[in-house]
Amino acid sequence: MTETATFRLATVNAEIARASQISRRKPEGVTLIAVSKTHPAEKIAPVIAAGQRVFGENRVQEAQDKWPALREETPDIELHLVGQLQSNKAEDAAALFDCIHSLDRPSLVKALAKAFDKTGRQVPCFVQLNIGDEDQKGGCAIKDLPDLLEKARKADIPLAGLMCVPPFGLEPAPYFALMAKLADDHGLDGRSMGMSSDFATAIMLGATHIRVGTALFGERG
Fold first, then answer.
1. What is the DSSP string of 75-117?
2. How far apart are alpha carbons 132 and 153 in whole angstroms?
3. CA distance linking residue 63 with residue 85, whole number of Å
4. Is this prediction's pTM over 0.85?
5. Are 172 and 141 in contact (CB under 8 A)?
6. What per-residue string of b and e applies to 20-44 under the rule 16 or more CB within 10 Å gives b?
7. What pLDDT does residue 221 have?
């Protein structure tokens, strides 16, 4: 299992390096988030042993169950919330995560500001965009982005950048390019975009954080 984890991590890192070289970027400018959602601790441990330190989870409760013990063994783990966040879980998220990728509505701005005050932690947040204007998908509409950013800044939410998931089955490059432009337009450095199937494209279009699950852990059971 550890050998497989080591091989998969090396393969992903090699692809990061290749995409960075093509786009004349430094691979150190890309943060690999190993998305461990639904995978048990025994499947995560070999990836940690292989050297990975940044992980992503979709649900607060699942992360609370899995990560305290893993972090006790490896204290320098950085944990990112990459799934939707309910406002009533904001305080738990603030206490557990080092970064949140799913700030998408004014009510969550208020909940997180209150949670940050209570926990004493200022957790960097990516604003999640509904980049393809899909009815069934979460995220802030592009037209609502300026207002949401203004509210977040007034509430002293530390803004890390923008995050998106392009529409399934469509060429992702135009959506990545659009999000990179929106990040530039609004003075945001971080671009959380790209997953197992398209992270090389995302890197070439400016991704600073890529969220990779399947390529590291295999298919979910």
1. TT-EEEE-S---GGGHHHHHHH-SEEEEE-SHHHHHHHHHHHH
2. 25
3. 13
4. yes
5. no
6. beeeebebeebbbbbbbbebeeebb
7. 53
